Amino acid sequence: MGDELEELYRTTYATVVRFLYRKVWDADRAHDLAQEVFIRAMAHRPEKPRAWIFAVAANLARDEARAAVRRKRHLTLLKEDPATMPSCPPPADEMVEEDERRAKVDEALATLTKRDREVLLLWDAGLSYPEIAQQTGLAVGAVGTTLARARKRLIDAYDRSEQEHRAAHS
Amino acid sequence: MRHIPEDELHAYLDQALSRSQCVEIERHLARCPRCQVQRDDIAALRDRTTALLARVGPPPIIPPAFETLMARAAVRQHRRWWWLRAGALAASVGGVLFLGWWMSGRLFRVEPRSAIATAPTVAPASDAPRTEVVPVPAATRAAPAVSRKPQPARPRPTPRLVRASRPVGTEAPAATGFALATETDPQTVYGGGAERFTLGDAPPLQLADLVAQPVGDDPGLNGLWRTIVPDGEAADTRSDIALVPGLPVVQMRVQPGTPGQDVTAVDQMLESGDMIRTISGPAARVLTLVNEDAAADSTNLRLAGGSTDHMTVTIRQADRMVAVTGPAQALGSLLARVNLKNAKRRY
């Protein structure tokens, strides 16, 4: 069991981090949550560790999103006070591009329904259709339909965002 | 000709179909250009989605060693066990304390028959008839707040003794001794201290319940004394013990000696609430006791009687003596009554 978990850790850790990152949009936080997931897996010793890990990761990301909303409210209050704003240097162009790209994907993902987004991210994390079905409560046959719809909506939303961006700059 | 549904093509490209389904789809794709186009579109969409999501991946980072996570998991597990043990210990201690408290309540439950409190209390107003005996003067008082076990049930006539009947609500005489009361109202609760007793429908208090144990610091009664339990109504009519007939006996004690040389001391309550004591026995021993009584600090007696004068009357007959001590005023009126009765009597 320990060896299996260790092997899973070596092969899946990066995937779990990526899965979490697309939910929390914070690399450090994604790493912390991924480690928390594996520590819990060591304590619980689940029978199906791979599916269990992604299920717990999704729950942790959900909790994190709620906490982020609370933090955001607090930061909004702080933002209104210019004295509390830290004086940071202007970001480099690469960072700006990266932020814009991430913002566009984030917006495109936000246009999806919660279930579509969850199925898409689980698929991107490498879970099989039965694993996705188990975690989301869908029938295995419905995973393909959901995934087809989610892909289409994501690309449509991203293209629309790109067009708006180009129109704004021209 | 049936074309391949879109979701099946997605599943086909995601390799989520069985081998037989894949063979069937590939056979159809080989002869259906429309489905081939759709397959290519879906593949492009799939690749774009993957690329889009890959562009927003986190920066690469070296994951911590697996052993590090194992150590953190062990620490967390140890902490969880510690809290579990602490919780179990706290629950055990709480359980033991509760059990002790519950058992103490069971073992030391006070019988709801009579109650002796350390101070006189004002009984709540009640329409039910009430009988009170307050106070018992300190001179005749034994240890304060002595709780006696109920005496074995003995047939007793109506207890005349405990009767300083007073209308409810009137002020009791100055009381320094313990108070003793019975109450026919089951709801009434007596006791000024921490303990409270519901008397309920307990039978009227018997004389034997009143008699307190002797104490060594009773002035005028040095030596070893044994309390005699008077036998109810017959207590004040006994011919073998010197006492004032007609007065309720509060306490009766004897100091044993050689046969026929016993000394008895009887405490009785006057109607005024004052106490008198009759000591009888060999003249020498009685005189010694009386002298000790006079020499002793009789403050208690005086305070208890509510008067400041203390008086002793002795009657000697051969080698025997009877001494009556008590408040001068009360004793004087008692003697005056005796003389008056003797004067009127004709022989």
Low-confidence stretches of chain A: 82-87
Given the helix and strand composition of chain A, which structural class is it?
Answer: mainly alpha
Question: Alpha-carbon distance between the termini of chain A?
Answer: 58 Å
Q: Note the main sheet of chain B.
A: 6 strands, antiparallel
Question: For the record, what CATH class of the domain at 226-344 in chain B applies?
Answer: Alpha Beta
Account of the 3D structure:
- The complex is a heterodimer of chains A (170) and B (347).
- Chain A is built from seven helices and no strands.
- Chain A is mainly α.
- Chain A has helices at residues 2-24, 27-44, 49-79, 93-111, 114-124, 129-136, 140-169.
- Mean pLDDT of chain A is 82; it is low at 82-87.
- Chain A folds into two domains: 1-88, Rna Polymerase Sigma Factor, Chain: A, CATH 1.10.1740; 91-165, Winged helix-like DNA-binding domain superfamily/Winged helix DNA-binding domain (Arc Repressor Mutant, subunit A, Orthogonal Bundle), CATH 1.10.10.10.
- Chain B has 347 residues and is α+β, with helices and mostly antiparallel strands.
- Among the domains of chain B are: 6-55, no CATH class; 226-344, Phosphorylase Kinase, domain 1 (2-Layer Sandwich), CATH 3.30.200.
- Chain B has helices at residues 6-13, 19-31, 33-55, 66-107, 207-210, 283-295, 299-305, 328-344; strands spanning 116-117, 130-133, 179-183, 189-190, 197-198, 226-228, 249-255, 263-269, 275-282, 310-317, 320-327.
- In chain B, strands 6-7-8-9-11-10 form a six-stranded antiparallel beta sheet. In chain B, strands 1-3-2 form a three-stranded antiparallel beta sheet, with no helix packed on it.
- The N and C termini of chain B lie far apart (153 Å).
- Residues 113-149, 155-217, 297-307 and 341-347 of chain B have low confidence and may be disordered.
- The chains are: A mainly alpha (170), B alpha+beta (347).
- At the A-B interface, helix 1, helix 2, helix 4, helix 5 and helix 7 of A face helix 1, helix 3 and helix 4 of B.
